[in-house]
Design goal:
This protein is mostly helical. The chain is built from nine helices and no strands.
């Protein structure tokens, strides 16, 4: 059951989610208990259970919220750009910048990918990202900007490039995001152009 929250309630819920995300990234999901989360905020377990039924629900909500935030960043960056390839380039850069700013979330997503309990949420997030990318690729195909190929396969390639470069150069490394973005965009757009 979803409660209707006041502004203060929404802020408290987000505070719990942000603190949990930090602790999950630092300590791991399994070793972090609900008690650890609430103690770090100086509140009781009742506060936690007012907003979440379980630690699993909390992580699922973190995954949904982070994906929503990433999409907002992409949409704001893309705006009303008419060129579909430029939309892809802007989206790639916005994604890399978001992950640079939210490194904790990348490790949480990587953990969740290894746990079947979170597969439905990750699948929905992935389908959303795939659908967004496919839409831009179809527009580019119709406009004659790229050869007529399977847009789903191309979208998976773009998403794979972003994921791998994020992991290697932004999460595991400390490369400037502009450099990683330039490499990702160059690779994706030149590869898409045949």
């Amino acid at each position: 059951m979803r409660r209707k929250l006041t502004q203060r309630g929404r802020q408290r819920r987000e505070q719990l989610m942000h603190r949990a995300a930090r602790l999950f990234a630092e300590r791991g999901y399994d070793p972090t208990s609900v008690a650890d989360i609430v103690e770090s905020l100086g509140v009781g377990k009742g506060v936690f259970y007012w907003y979440f039924t379980s630690k699993e629900e909390l992580l699922a909500e973190i995954l949904k919220a982070s994906n929503h935030d990433l999409r907002r960043r992409q949409e704001a960056a893309i705006g009303d750009e008419p060129d579909p390839l430029e939309r892809i380039a802007i989206g790639v850069r916005a994604s890399l910048e978001w992950f640079r700013d939210h490194r904790d979330y990348f490790s949480i997503i990587q953990f969740a990918a290894t746990d079947e309990r979170f597969a439905p949420v990750l699948r929905r997030n992935r389908e959303t990202a795939l659908g967004d990318t496919i839409r831009h690729l179809k527009d580019a195909i119709v406009a004659g900007r790229i050869p007529d190929q399977d847009p789903e396969m191309l979208a998976l390639a773009v998403l794979g490039v972003v994921e791998q470069l994020t992991r290697r150069y932004l999460v595991d490394g400390d490369e400037p995001v502009d450099r990683v973005g330039a490499a990702a965009v160059s690779f994706c757009l030149h590869g898409l152009g045949g």
